[in-house]
Amino acid sequence: MPAVQPITQPNATDTGTCRHCGERLVSQQVDFCCPGCALVHDLIHQRGWHEYYRLRALADGKPNQNKNNDLPSFAYLGTEVYYDKHCGRRDGLYQGTWYLEGLHCAACVWLVEKLVQNCRGVVNSELYFGSGKLVLFFEAGADLEELARLIAAAGYQVGLQPRVGGEESRDLLRLGISGALAGNIMLMSLPFYTGLEQGGFALLFAWVAFTLTLPLLFYGAAPFFKRAWLAVRLLQLNLDIPIVIGLMSAFVLSTVSLLQGHVHGLYFDSMGMLVFFLLTGRYVQNMGVQRALRETQRLLAAMPQLVSCREGDTWVEKPVEVLKRGDQLRFRAGDLVPVDGILDSDEGLFNLHVVSGEADPVTIKRGGRVLAGSVNLASVVEIILESGVDQSQFARFQEKSQQFNRKKQQQPIAEAAARWFLPAALSAALLGFVLWYPSSPAKAFSVALTVLIVVCPCALALAEPTARAWGLSRAAQAGLWIKRPEVFEQVPRVKQVVFDKTGVITEGLPTLLETHWFHPNQHWLKAAICELEQAGHHPLANMFLSAWQAERGPVPTFKSVTAVKAIPGVGVRGEIDGREVVVCSLAALPQFAERESCLATASDLAAGLAPGRSATAAVVNGRLAALFTLVDALGEEVPEAMKQLEKRGLVRTILSGDRQDVVDQLTGMLALDQGLGERKPEQKLAYIEGCRNQGCLMVGDGLNDMGALAAADVGVTHALGTGAALEFADVVLRRRDLTGIDSLFDLADRVKAATRRGLALSLGYNTVAVALSLAGLIGPLIAAVLMPLSSLSVIAVSAWTLRQRSR
Amino acid sequence: MGILWVLVPLALALSGIAVVAYVWAWRNRQFEDMETPAYRVLFEDGEATRRGPRANGEVDKAKGHEARG
């Protein structure tokens, strides 16, 4: 190991930068800018792994940081449920897959692999940088919990795949083999193009080409046969049917003429090219879809948390899967409740944002129902499990949404072209045969064959897949992950865009709008409020912390912080350095503050509050110290995005679980067409079902939008959305930036244009070629040469269309 | 021209070998990860302890133990 180079590990005393991330230090900070960096540096340093810093400098990588000091619990990895549900077995070893978020350079790969190698019980591993996938092979009892904790402490997020399975794709294998076969068939056919017509060699080449065609047809083209057969059974037409007819007729006719000893009129090479080009087009298209699915899968990866469950007199941590009806569960502040239950504590404060869309915390009394997805905000609460995990309202709703998604997939892609193309092609061939039969039966046969070959819908079949494949890759560049390529077809038909409010149009979190100070020492009060909010796990804690983090500076030390108590629905109180500090809602103010003039100010403020805003107060020793106005702020780009959509002439609707007055105010402010508030998840679903197939695009991010997203013609969510939303949406925006929706429309239009041009080109080619072959002007040979050329031109045209307009 | 009777099968055999090599590479999951190996080049000699993709999912136990020790 080389000596540690000064540039790669900055020395804090010389340069005043953080020893881990190299950021400039503020006064009073020693060596590190944050505890996260200190932790990662310690972890690396203790093990003598300075190689990490060398690699990081070499790869010009960003430092990994652990800004989040609250690591999730990885206890799940030690449970039987993890081994049963998430691990495969192979050769006496377990195999498990984790998803890591935050790998950015070679140093990250090195660090994670080092950590894995040093873990007891892990025998082998594979780390995939591109997908963030870490595959582990381990013995029973391996210390996975510790490994996950270390990786997380080093600044990477560790999650499990939401669902196990997913078959290995054999497409690449099929494509490669078909390519090799097609190339060799072409080679064997070359002599016929250059005039070899008879003799032993002609037959040799012809038979070799025939032999190579067999695997190509029955292995390479198998997917087309399968899909064509499926369509036949469902009494539908798709583009695979003409492909199969073309392939089979070319194969049968070529084989017949080969058996008769003729070596002209063989189309094995054309078949090879056809299969290879089609497979390539579909592979490229699938790659785009796979990429989108992989990205969302990575976003969906999370670490299941254990739930504390009462067993006799003690509390035992258990995975959700083994809980039974009637179990008594305990949740701490900040915990997500994963099941439906009845509250068994006197009172609890919950954030139902993802469940119902309501932005304000809700107080639930003893005996009230707590739904899966609620977040416990105040103190420790106990909940009695009402039904099995599979029967929670969430699970039932999820099942219903899945039905919608399945229906969507079965929707036949509008292959209108195929519907009339097939009969037209067959009747043209028949016409040729009938027209020429009286003069010469042999010529009639050749003409019919030529027609069949020229109309073999290679170019036609390629037009749509190539346009979509290009569209998918453009979409990924623009920050859109599209999980279903059919979206391109549905988006141009959209007439109405429906938005969820909280988390989509608004940030979903309150931000500080105005402050009125009555206390002389603002700095002390800010620090005190931050301290109190953090200690009490108050819902507003993050807001205060993010607003004042910068000016709060180095963390102040209070001599004593005691008696901190969160009062559900009211606020939080505590004693800081002997002074009583309370942060409470305006309604509760009279309980804590006395001076009447202050109270008057407060009630004036309350009276003047615009809808959608709320206020909160700080009290020190019974005196009003500060008043804050809060607002759930609009996303920055929302007005711009709404204008873009208005320009497109779309109906814009808000469909929210939040209060009607809040929704009305937003609708007015953004000049939207419709604002529907107080809709429960089922009502949202019902509304969307009503507009189904009339061009309805839904944008949502919460559990409550799951059904609506699945039912809508196009469901859109963003990467910060809940797992359920990510799972059921068709399109995922990489950032919560609604202007992405306009890009989606733009892209879909371009894909449509590219498809149209491709179709026009191939239809034009087909018409001309069919006319020429009916007239007997071109023979099967020229037709076979023209066919691949037309496919190439279609690919070129769609690439050109998408490229040209994006500039 | 009689040489063609040898050359044609030879050419086919050669492409057969290429196809077999391709199938082997695919089975070995050589095409699964196109990015990570590029980074692994940067590691110090002796640091490149990863065993690379394994044949047919077999686990190389001996090496695994070595690396851990």
TrEMBL record, chain A:
<keyword id="KW-0812">Transmembrane</keyword>
<feature type="transmembrane region" description="Helical">
    <location>
        <begin position="172"/>
        <end position="194"/>
    </location>
</feature>
<dbReference type="InterPro" id="IPR008250">
    <property type="entry name" value="ATPase_P-typ_transduc_dom_A_sf"/>
</dbReference>
<dbReference type="Pfam" id="PF00122">
    <property type="entry name" value="E1-E2_ATPase"/>
</dbReference>
<keyword id="KW-1278">Translocase</keyword>
<feature type="transmembrane region" description="Helical">
    <location>
        <begin position="237"/>
        <end position="259"/>
    </location>
</feature>
<dbReference type="InterPro" id="IPR036412">
    <property type="entry name" value="HAD-like_sf"/>
</dbReference>
<keyword id="KW-0479">Metal-binding</keyword>
<keyword id="KW-0813">Transport</keyword>
<keyword id="KW-0460">Magnesium</keyword>
<dbReference type="GO" id="GO:0016887">
    <property type="term" value="F:ATP hydrolysis activity"/>
</dbReference>
<feature type="transmembrane region" description="Helical">
    <location>
        <begin position="444"/>
        <end position="463"/>
    </location>
</feature>
<protein>
    <submittedName>
        <fullName>Heavy metal translocating P-type ATPase metal-binding domain-containing protein</fullName>
    </submittedName>
</protein>
<feature type="transmembrane region" description="Helical">
    <location>
        <begin position="758"/>
        <end position="775"/>
    </location>
</feature>
<dbReference type="InterPro" id="IPR023299">
    <property type="entry name" value="ATPase_P-typ_cyto_dom_N"/>
</dbReference>
<comment type="similarity">
    <text>Belongs to the cation transport ATPase (P-type) (TC 3.A.3) family. Type IB subfamily.</text>
</comment>
<keyword id="KW-0472">Membrane</keyword>
<feature type="transmembrane region" description="Helical">
    <location>
        <begin position="416"/>
        <end position="438"/>
    </location>
</feature>
<dbReference type="InterPro" id="IPR027256">
    <property type="entry name" value="P-typ_ATPase_IB"/>
</dbReference>
<dbReference type="Pfam" id="PF00702">
    <property type="entry name" value="Hydrolase"/>
</dbReference>
<keyword id="KW-1133">Transmembrane helix</keyword>
<dbReference type="GO" id="GO:0005524">
    <property type="term" value="F:ATP binding"/>
</dbReference>
TrEMBL record, chain B:
<keyword id="KW-1133">Transmembrane helix</keyword>
<feature type="compositionally biased region" description="Basic and acidic residues">
    <location>
        <begin position="57"/>
        <end position="69"/>
    </location>
</feature>
<keyword id="KW-0812">Transmembrane</keyword>
<dbReference type="InterPro" id="IPR004714">
    <property type="entry name" value="Cyt_oxidase_maturation_cbb3"/>
</dbReference>
<feature type="region of interest" description="Disordered">
    <location>
        <begin position="50"/>
        <end position="69"/>
    </location>
</feature>
<feature type="transmembrane region" description="Helical">
    <location>
        <begin position="6"/>
        <end position="25"/>
    </location>
</feature>
<protein>
    <submittedName>
        <fullName>Cbb3-type cytochrome oxidase assembly protein CcoS</fullName>
    </submittedName>
</protein>
<dbReference type="Pfam" id="PF03597">
    <property type="entry name" value="FixS"/>
</dbReference>
<keyword id="KW-0472">Membrane</keyword>
